[in-house]
């Protein structure tokens, strides 16, 4: 199945203490809007994100697929070879980093090109969500996920590119439908006008998420960050880490995106075609009962 994730399920079930019985329990009764072809690898990410709570997992599954259905500008047309996605990948850096010693996944993002006119907000969010999916594809369920943003090339004019409707959908998805446990959001090279950014996004952020937000200025001492969150062996050289540069890591991830292209195309077909079929069957059942 091309829409399935690529990680090792058996290893993940053992590592995270997940059971096949719980995966089976998530399928019955069917959840409206969730494809019947959803795989155990897909389900395992949700189950782990919800600390193995079946009822909570079912709720998050519904929110996840509803968010993708109601946000086509952020979740459809996700072909890595398409011109809009390629434009994002040429002007911004996106990639997962190696898992930390605590087992956390880490997603890195920054603007490569400081020119605001090259920043297309909705497409940038779409590509960021694709990077999260790419990370889940490779790393599977983990104890948590960390978002690492570098504001090095962000300027005031970028604020004029923000779409508030998409900001709302972005945070709704991250806070309510993400198939991973969000542990922290670290922002490095914080700009002087970050208060203006916070003013824009704060109405859409839960207090719990605000408490996970850590800001680091360009002259910050990173020793505590390395010790408590992401060690040097998991960071690019640009941030004082032992890995390759951001540019090199981004280029490597472009190759992974290309390999995962069949997954992105199949996942979208799974969502749209399977869901439409289920809804059609339910309408037929309703008519026959009436």
What key attributes describe this structure?
290 residues; alpha/beta; five-stranded mixed beta sheet; 13 helices; globular
Write up this protein:
With 290 residues, the chain is α/β, with parallel strands linked by helices. It has helices at 9-16, 20-25, 40-49, 54-70, 72-75, 83-91, 121-139, 164-177, 194-201, 207-210, 223-228, 246-259, 261-289; strands spanning 92-97, 105-111, 145-150, 182-188, 213-216. The chain has a 5-stranded mixed beta sheet with strand order 1-2-3-4-5. It starts with 8 loop residues before the first helix and ends with a helix. The relative contact order is 0.15.
- Strand percentage lies at 5-15%
Per DSSP E runs of 2 or more residues, the count of β-strands stands at 5
Structural class from helices and strands?
alpha/beta
Helix content: 40-55%
Arrangement of strands in the largest sheet = 1-2-3-4-5
